[in-house]
Amino acid sequence: MRRFLLTRLAQAGIVALVVGALSFALMHALPGDPAMRIAAGRYGPDARIVDAAEKVRLELGLDRPWAVQLTDWIGSLARFDLGHSLVTGAPVLEELKVQLGASVWLAGAALLLSLLIGPTIGVFSGLRPGSLTDRLGLVGAVILRAMPPFVLGLILMLVLAIWLGWLPPAGFGSWRELLLPALTLALGLAAVSSQVTRNAIAAVAKAPYFAFARHKGLPEAVVVRRHGLRNAAIPVVSFLGLQAIYLVEGVVVVESIFAYPGIGHALVHAIIERDVPMVQGTALVMGLMFVVLAATVDLASAWLDPRLRSTQ
Amino acid sequence: MSTDIASVPLLRRPLNGARLFGSALLVVLAGFAILGPWLVQADPATQDFGASLAPIGGDYLLGADHYGRSLLARLAYGARLSFGMAFLTTLAAAIPGALLGLAAAWYGGWIERGLELLATVVLALPGLMLVLLLLAFAPGNFGPLFLGLALTLWVEFYRVTRATTAAILRQPHIEAAKLLGFGSGYILRCYIMPVIAPTIATLAAFAMATAIIAVSTLSAISVGLQPPTPELGSMIVELLPYYAEAPVHVLLPAVLIFLLVLGLQLVAQRSDR
């Protein structure tokens, strides 16, 4: 357990350093004087911009050697200080708090929906390999896998929001706005998790302990619940660990398509506006979200499968 | 940007129906991408407002978009762009990835430790985020997009090559070959390449599919390639406001991406069902 935590902490540290170094390089490689850009962002481009830039340069110490500045940045990161947005002037941390909350809701809803859709289809397919359900499930999974998430999102938006008018196409507020982007992400995840479940259930159904449970006269539902689901859940949960990447990346894409105000949306906007402190802050938060997600999934697999606990 | 590690080598598997269909699909699409821009006389950037949203089958074979640009020409150039970009990215990821994997397994020691550290660092970041960070240097440019994708995709090739090669090198027949005085070039050519080449081919097909999806997605959320370029993802978003008047026009680029990715995934699929 201690080793596990240390590995994850190291991973989080690596994420912070890589993102920091890249954004730092970004700040210095972009054309133009960083002090000028910050001054323009803060006070708007006016006649006294050169004086303002000098003040910013002195205030932020932008004339020091870059190694000193990088160390300084890491120091302020350790104090949870991410600087100010070049566009709004607000502290990056304040903006991120709101956006991260929205994204966590979205990711959570997507995970929940995908667990309702994928494994359910998988269990029905796996218990009867070769049946119509099984074949339809496979075709559906192949189609969803070959479709970029943004196309899926646009199709859902057109059908559910515009033609049928069931859900709002974009925005933020209640669960109704959350449902479309969450469903887009969930279907992408379910495409694979249904197949992983199907294969796991099919394997479990062939196992001797499963046959024994049937022979001793347990009703089918009890056999599946007690002997099937938990064993089949192990590969599904470890698959979700791999898909933590899909979820974090999907958040960026889906939020942009549905204009949902989360960190993914913020990252894309910060890149278009070249708001480097925001890029740095959002990328950092998304990287850490990825580490936390992966760690949670690892803990969940250890809880499901006691055999894993001894090796960790 | 995750790719599945296909444990069954590509060239060893029987050519079943799905793979045959996938290969045929890819041949047709590659033909369209390579020959299309050459056969289609229309220029993908020439605007003709008189023909705005022209229907399919008239003066324009596949209709025209809202600026009256020939959709057939734009689709052909878009397919060439997607295919070409994905192919180059995959090459730029597969060659260094596989070579580094070979080097790590062959030399071991500090080379292996250093490369492992590098791979861990890249794996700690979601791939799309690395691409987005690099894209912040110059949104809408080929360079950072290409570099970012290659930088995330090489790890898969590196890890699989290292693991496979290390397993082969531990086997007794390699020891025997070394004792008989065969050089490392011979061992590489006769014992290692035949085993890892099919695996790399499988990974490459998945990596190409990933690259095609990534480029179109990033262009659709307007940080990838910018609109005048006939890119399939940005074409969908550009045509989306006109979905009511010309639904098929919006669908065409989407279907083209779908078929490209489907073909690649079918060719690389696992046959363990």
How would a textbook summarize the main sheet of chain A? none
Which blocks of ≥5 consecutive residues of chain A have pLDDT under 50? none
- Count of β-strands of chain A: 0
C-alpha-based Rg of chain A, rounded: 24 Å
Order of helices and strands of chain A: HHHHHHHHHHHHHH
Mean pLDDT score of chain B = 79
Which terms summarize this structure?
heterodimer; A: 312 residues; mainly alpha; 80% helix; 0% strand; B: 273 residues; elongated; disordered N terminus
Question: What's this entry about, in short?
Answer:
Chain A is mainly alpha-helical. In chain A, α5 runs parallel beside α8. The N and C termini of chain A lie close together (6 Å).
Overall description:
The complex is a heterodimer of chains A (312) and B (273). By secondary structure, chain A is mostly helical. Chain A has helices spanning 2-29, 34-43, 49-60, 66-78, 92-127, 132-145, 149-163, 175-206, 208-215, 220-242, 244-257, 263-272, 276-304, 306-311. In chain A, helix 11 crosses helix 12. The longest helix of chain A is centred in the middle third of the chain and has 36 residues, at 92-127. Chain A is elongated, with a radius of gyration of 24 Å. Chain B has 9 helices and no strands. Chain B has helices spanning 17-39, 71-107, 109-123, 127-135, 142-169, 172-179, 184-220, 232-239, 247-268. In chain B, helix 1 crosses helix 9 (247-268) and helix 4 runs antiparallel to helix 5 (142-169). Chain B starts with 16 loop residues before the first helix and ends in a 5-residue tail after the last helix. Chain A binds chain B through residues 11, 14-15, 18-19, 22-23, 26, 29-30, 138, 142-143, 145-151, 154, 158, 199, 242-243, 245-246, 248-249, 252-253, 256-257, 267-268, 270-272, 274, 276, 279, 283, 286-287, 290-291, and chain B through 1-2, 120-121, 124-130, 132-137, 139, 209, 213, 216-217, 220-223, 233, 236, 240, 243, 254, 257-259, 261-262, 265-266, 272-273.
